[in-house]
Design goal:
Number of helices of chain A: 3
Strand content of chain A: 15-25%
Radius of gyration of chain B: 42 Å
Strand content of chain B: 25-35%
Number of strands of chain B: 10
Radius of gyration of chain A: 12 Å
Order of helices and strands of chain B: HHHHHEEEEEEEEEE
Structural class of chain B: alpha+beta
Number of helices of chain B: 5
Largest sheet of chain A: 3 strands, antiparallel
Number of strands of chain A: 3
Order of helices and strands of chain A: EHHEEH
Structural class of chain A: alpha+beta
Largest interface: A-B, 25 and 22 residues
Strand order of the largest sheet of chain B: 3-10-5-8
Strand order of the largest sheet of chain A: 1-3-2
Oligomer: heterodimer
Helix content of chain A: 40-55%
Shape of chain B: elongated
């Protein structure tokens, strides 16, 4: 099961790609998720997170917010 | 008749060179315990006789039995496994490259000239399989960025399997154009 999270401001990723998916993976684990894999598509400005099982609706929301929080912090943008 | 004898002064000079008596020399060789060379031979022979016997005659069966299973094997022991029809204990060397967990596949990962990255949960992939589904070669970095020179290449429409101690991140890009890859991992 995978979830695709679009990232805003794709030009930022073109300018400064995130090439360390393991870092986002660790961040999501710290938030309580257990992803199998995290794929960062800098060109497509999106992140895919793979799980063993389907997430509940509230878990999905938390996941999306966690990914966006990580992204904002990486590009230096306030919420 | 001719007499032949030593000059007494010459004889005395030679006798003076013997600075201890023969009995003193004997006593010195025999030592404080008054052992003869025969005694020494008998003692050495007795020690040899005690060495040249089975170990079990030196340590009781109870002593040896007490040592049994007290010494841990650095290789590990698989107990009570069925080996060729018998139940026994075997020593086993565990191949750390042998996957022991559920394998997973991540399909249709987009690859462009901008480097992308996919993580793999700990302990990482012991066997990593990358399938290039497109017509452009993919340049690969394992556990880090794609090397600027001589990176691993997964050629167009090919599959590359990589045994590794633990791949926790795969980075990828193409020199031009785009493609998609599938990543399978076994850990």
């Amino acid at each position: 099961m995978s979830y695709e999270i679009p990232l805003p401001m794709p030009e930022e990723l073109q300018r400064k790609p995130i090439t360390n998916a393991a870092e986002l993976h660790r961040f999501l684990e710290e938030q309580g998720f257990k992803p199998l894999s995290v794929a960062i598509d800098n060109a497509g400005a999106k992140v895919r997170v793979f799980f063993e099982r389907e997430l509940a609706e509230d878990e999905k929301k938390v996941l999306f917010e966690a990914v966006l929080d990580f992204y904002r912090e990486r590009i230096g943008v306030e919420r | 008749m001719v007499f032949e004898f030593l000059d007494p002064s010459y004889l005395k000079s030679k006798l003076d060179m013997l600075d201890i008596s023969l009995s003193s020399l004997r006593n010195a060789l025999m030592g404080a315990d008054n052992r003869s060379l025969t005694d020494v031979y008998n003692i050495v022979n007795s020690v040899y006789g005690r060495l040249d016997v089975a170990l079990s005659t030196r340590a009781s069966e109870a002593t040896l039995s007490a040592l049994n299973n007290k010494i841990p094997s650095p290789l590990g022991i698989i107990a009570n496994q069925d080996v060729i029809g018998t139940t026994t204990n075997v020593l086993a060397v565990v191949n750390m490259l042998t996957p022991a967990r559920q394998p997973y596949t991540m399909q249709n990962i987009a690859v462009s000239t901008t480097e992308g990255s996919t993580s793999i949960a700990a302990p990482g992939a012991k066997i990593l399989v990358i399938k290039n589904r497109g017509d452009t070669d993919v340049l690969i970095g394992i556990n880090g960025a794609v090397p600027a020179t001589n990176p691993l290449v997964v050629r167009a429409r090919t599959v590359k399997a990589i045994p590794h101690r633990g791949v926790t991140q795969v980075n990828y890009r193409v020199a031009s154009g785009s493609t998609t890859i599938d990543i399978e991992y076994y850990n």
